[in-house]
Design brief:
The chain is α+β, with helices and mostly antiparallel strands. It is 30% helix and 29% strand. A hairpin with a 6-residue loop joins strand 9 and strand 10. Helix 3 packs parallel to helix 4 and helix 5 packs across helix 6. The radius of gyration is 20 Å and the shape is globular. The chain starts with a strand and ends with a strand.
Amino acid sequence: MTYTISCYPKNHAYHETFFEVIRFIKKHNDHYRFLTIHWSRFEWMFARDCMKDETLDQIIIFRNEDNEISGILTFEDDPGTWFAIYDQNPELKALMVDYFDTHFEGDLIIPHDPFITTLLEQKGYEKMDWMDPISWFSIKDFELPKPGGYQIRSLEEDYRLEEIHHALWLGFNHGPEITYTKQELEDRKSMTSSPHFKKKYTFAAHHDTHYVAYAGIWFIEGSKTALIEPVATVPDHRRKGLAQACIYHAINEVKKDGAEAIFVGSNTKFYQDIGFKLYDASYRYTKKKNG
């Protein structure tokens, strides 16, 4: 098999190459592979406008003889650490490792793969004491929580950029002082209007006029897997079951539309307590330091 290598275009618009990458990753996700770099994680990076045009050519695409994507080296937010996603072909794996070692200085994240691990070790890489976990929702039947004093609504029912900003700014501990600049609200609009974002899969807990908890799920109808991202609760409203309520409502909606498995990129106690179990993990390899 002969492969051609190309760089991702220096254009973070939603063009055909973007959709090719999404379809390629989703193909693997539907076979429960490479779930730690779920297709939605790639789209979420573009939706948050974290992928800058000047660095996009450091996403590398490997195409087979039919001009179909067979492998990708991609980073998250900024180059320095890359994820490898690939078809199961030894020649392709060797080519990708050679390219990475020759062209990049940084770390490579891969799933458990003895073949690639051996190739990396031969080139002087070692496994770090770090893993990127993925957990799956293990509860088949569940009731939708109804926290007293709060209403749980989807963004399809109530969509306000100022309140999305309120919940995420405070929920991710950016500080008590919130500004609502035009650019900040445009950023929230971008986050919630990417090609596969669905308002009906994102829920917020309402208290008075504010969103005080927020949880979304990414899912494409006709596929098998869904991923939760992001989840946040305003500090004054934590430990009241609000995040769980938003997550359960979102899970209920994607299951109605055919999702077979719901995942989250975490294995914290919070997720364990609400029904998630560790499913898999990816591992980081770094070049050994001389001396």
